[in-house]
């Protein structure tokens, strides 16, 4: 394909993409294909002779579209959103055009410098404490996903602790042995409701993982006292907690851990790396009404949210902010001769390869830059507030049907969790409150107060069962897509 053929092909592709967005709401969200649907529709191997773009493009509608789940559909209600926008899409186009690995500043200065500037813009926009800006010891980097960020933070936290503990020892076999011995005793912590990425990161880092309790009585959030109790229990067992994921917007209920309380613990546990995972809800920090959550972050080590989840930036764009970039560089900077150059050696430039696990990196800051400039901070605030208001409307509609539903949490950051009320059974009558039929509003508060333990367990089981049945029926129809949690 030469540039003139590209021009024709690209115009046709853009026409098709614009039509797709114009008609997306009319399509069922879920495809109705069975596992393995695609193989019989494609040849066994690549064509010997190149094909025309017309022929390739026709297969989008014919074989790809029938198997697509339409994440950008307004009827998509599953997991968390994965927003896209036309400015973000244009950023992806240019990034594809300038295709480069850009791991060092010298590999493409614009890649690096735009990323540093855009991350500073984002930090200021969401009012992160100044320590996360690049003008001091901190800064921001764009990575692919929140899980990738958690692995990056966990490994850096592990190595930071080892460096601190063994700083007195000269480089030697003995020091390596000591470090290996330490690693086996290290424990990464996260709320029992933290995303599974913390557990996965601990596995990858070869450390242990412990969950910090976050019960319903604390609104599914980790409190300072629960964290202290877990840390002290680990220490009493001869283990060493070195890392904690604090969550801003947990996956199941959008709970926010007690940042202010947890910040008061940092002087007692100075070697504990605290990372804030705000994968979804972090985007809400563009609105002043949520920015009170940011002040305690000055006491923590790192912060992350996915601009691709709720800030109109096409996948992937995970904004990772670090208070002391040295903590990453001291772990990840390994410079064989082929990666060295006069600019890196001068110390005047940022080489993002030293802040991450992979070497090569995409030009992701372009799409974030386009989005920030196209919408402006006001536009982004309006976008988030509209979703939050729709979330309140949804909550009120559900809460208004107490005969059918019970709200469990929310609305928090546009997320409401609810269950379908089980049909009253004779077993319910065992409780002091007189059974489901007599509960005044069928809310959890009522049944946790009024029921005996057995009746409550039975109620939960029945509620889970009927809720599962209802959402599975909704999903099977394919028009909407919902997710559940237990
Ligand atoms: N953290 C939280 C709170 C999440 O809800 C999710 C996914 O929904 C993740 C992390 C993982 O996100 P990613 O796909 O960016 O790894």
Kindly report the CATH topology of the largest domain: Aspartate Aminotransferase, domain 2
Low-confidence stretches: 427-443
Q: Return Rg in Å.
A: 25 Å
Overall morphology: globular
Termini separation: 51 Å
Beta-strand content: 5-15%
Largest sheet: 7 strands, mixed
Mean pLDDT: 92
Major β-sheet strand ordering? 2-8-7-6-5-3-4
Structural class: alpha/beta
Q: What compounds are bound to the protein?
A: pyridoxal-5'-phosphate
The level-1 CATH class of the largest domain? Alpha Beta
Specify the CATH architecture of the largest domain.
3-Layer(aba) Sandwich
- Per DSSP E runs of 2 or more residues, the count of β-strands stands at 11
Helix content: 40-55%
**Count of DSSP helices?**
15
Count of discrete structural domains = 3
In CATH, the homologous superfamily of the largest domain goes by the name Type I PLP-dependent aspartate aminotransferase-like (Major domain)
What are the secondary-structure elements, in order, as H or E? HHEHHEHHEHEHEHEEHEHHHEEHHE
Oligomeric state of the chains in view: single chain
Cofactor: pyridoxal 5'-phosphate
Modified residues (N6-(pyridoxal phosphate)lysine): 309
Protein name: Dopa decarboxylase-like protein
InterPro entries: Aromatic_deC, PyrdxlP-dep_de-COase, PyrdxlP-dep_Trfase, PyrdxlP-dep_Trfase_major, PyrdxlP-dep_Trfase_small, Pyridoxal-P_BS
């Amino acid at each position: 394909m030469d540039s003139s053929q590209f021009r024709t092909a690209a115009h046709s592709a853009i026409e098709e993409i614009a039509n797709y967005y114009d008609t997306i709401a009319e399509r069922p969200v879920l495809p109705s294909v069975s596992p393995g649907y695609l193989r019989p529709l494609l040849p066994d191997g690549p064509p010997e002779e190149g094909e025309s773009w017309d022929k390739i493009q026709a297969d989008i509608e014919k074989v790809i579209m029938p198997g697509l789940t339409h994440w950008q559909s307004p009827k998509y209600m599953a997991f968390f959103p994965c927003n896209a926008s036309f400015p973000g899409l244009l950023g992806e186009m240019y990034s594809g055009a300038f295709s480069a690995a850009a791991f060092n500043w010298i590999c493409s200065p614009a890649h690096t410098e735009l990323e540093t500037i855009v991350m500073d813009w984002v930090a200021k926009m969401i009012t992160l404490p100044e320590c996360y800006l690049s003008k001091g010891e901190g800064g921001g980097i764009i990575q692919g996903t929140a899980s990738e960020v958690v692995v990056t933070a966990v490994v850096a936290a592990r190595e930071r602790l080892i460096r601190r503990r063994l700083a007195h020892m000269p480089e030697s076999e003995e020091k390596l042995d000591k470090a290996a011995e330490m690693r086996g005793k290290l424990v990464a912590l996260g709320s029992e409701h933290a995303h599974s990425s913390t557990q996965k990161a601990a596995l990858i880092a070869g450390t242990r993982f412990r969950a910090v309790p976050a019960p319903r009585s604390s609104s599914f959030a980790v409190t300072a006292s629960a964290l202290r109790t877990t840390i002290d229990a680990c220490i009493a067992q001869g283990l060493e907690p070195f890392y904690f994921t604090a969550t801003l917007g947990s996956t199941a209920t959008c709970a926010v851990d007690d940042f202010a309380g947890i910040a008061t613990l940092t002087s007692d546990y100075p070697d504990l790396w605290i990372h804030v995972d705000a994968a979804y809800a972090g985007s809400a920090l563009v609105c002043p009404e949520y920015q009170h959550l940011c002040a305690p972050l000055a006491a923590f080590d790192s912060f992350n949210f996915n601009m691709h989840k709720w800030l109109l930036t096409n996948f992937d764009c995970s904004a990772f902010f670090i208070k002391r970039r040295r903590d990453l560089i001291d772990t990840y900077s390994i410079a064989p001769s082929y990666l060295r150059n006069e600019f890196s050696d001068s110390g005047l430039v940022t080489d993002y390869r030293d802040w991450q696990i992979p070497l090569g990196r995409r030009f992701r800051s372009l799409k974030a830059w386009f989005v920030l400039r196209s919408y402006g901070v006001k536009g982004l605030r309006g976008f988030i507030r509209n979703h939050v208001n729709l979330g309140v409307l949804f909550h009120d509609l559900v809460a208004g049907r107490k005969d059918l539903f019970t709200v469990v949490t929310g609305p928090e950051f546009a997320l409401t969790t609810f269950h379908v009320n089980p049909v009253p059974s004779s077993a319910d009558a065992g409780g002091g409150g007189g059974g489901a039929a007599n509960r005044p509003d069928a809310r959890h508060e009522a049944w946790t107060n009024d029921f005996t333990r057995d009746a409550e367990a039975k109620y939960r089981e029945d509620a889970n069962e009927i809720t599962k049945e209802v959402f599975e029926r909704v999903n099977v129809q394919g028009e909407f897509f919902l997710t559940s949690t237990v």
